[in-house]
Write a structure and sequence with these properties.
225 residues, mainly alpha, Serine Threonine Protein Phosphatase 5, Tetratricopeptide repeat, 2 domains, elongated
């Protein structure tokens, strides 16, 4: 049985993933609060001190402090970006979208808020808004691996592996551990008959994303290679 007949194409959801990482978001929050000069933060307090705190309590603390910072400086973009990220990270998509829109009214080129807006709109089922935010994000940040991946997805959904392949390779040249690129590139190689290359990419995917959404498919595929 040929690789193409055993492992067919599948529809891949177009997404923007801009994951700053928890410590980066918290560090950004500290910066925003201190920049407001409200004195609500004690000097020396930073994200590195928060490892033993629960994510929920940390998010609540920072959200309150960031709102205080905005009272002092209403147009503090850094605070709005951090709040939008925290809202989205804690699963409040409606609030995340509202905060991101508030941010974009002040700076319509904020990549953090465009990413949050696109993700939150997608989660809320507003595909029209998601597409608009995504298009602006991609226009402003064409070399971002998430942008390149989304461009590859357009070809993948048309079952055009030849069109997707160079974009997936570009994605991985920028971020060798971009999980979705690893998985899709592995499947493209599989369908092209490069079994050794496919196995290598799928094994990298499993190492990078052991609990990822495509872990089962990747593990089952590797068994046959």
């Amino acid at each position: 049985m040929s690789p193409g007949s055993q492992f067919g194409h599948h529809t891949t959801k177009v997404i923007v993933e801009v994951d700053l990482g928890r410590n980066q978001i918290l560090s950004h929050s500290v910066f925003a609060i201190e920049k407001s000069h409200t004195g609500v933060v004690t000097r020396g307090f930073n994200a590195q001190d928060l490892h033993l705190s629960s994510p929920l309590s940390v998010s609540q603390i920072f959200s309150r402090k960031l709102e205080e910072a905005l009272v002092a400086v209403p147009d503090l973009i850094e605070a709005l970006e951090a709040i939008a990220n925290i809202d989205y990270d804690t699963g409040d998509n409606e609030l995340a979208l509202a905060t991101a829109r508030r941010c974009l009214e002040l700076d319509d080129e904020s990549l953090r808020c465009l990413a949050v807006a696109a993700n939150a709109a997608s989660s809320l089922g507003d595909t029209e808004a998601q597409a608009a935010y995504l298009a602006t994000y991609q226009e402003l940040n064409p070399d971002d691996p998430a942008t390149v991946f989304n461009q590859a997805v357009v070809f993948l959904n048309k079952m055009d592996d030849e069109g997707a392949r160079p974009l997936l390779e570009q994605c991985l040249s920028v971020d060798p551990e971009f999980a979705k690129c690893l998985f899709e590139y592995g499947m493209v190689l599989l369908r092209s008959g490069d079994l050794e290359g496919a196995k290598a990419q799928l094994e990298k995917y499993l190492a990078v994303a052991p609990d990822g959404p495509d872990t089962t498919a990747a593990a089952e595929t590797v068994k046959y290679l």
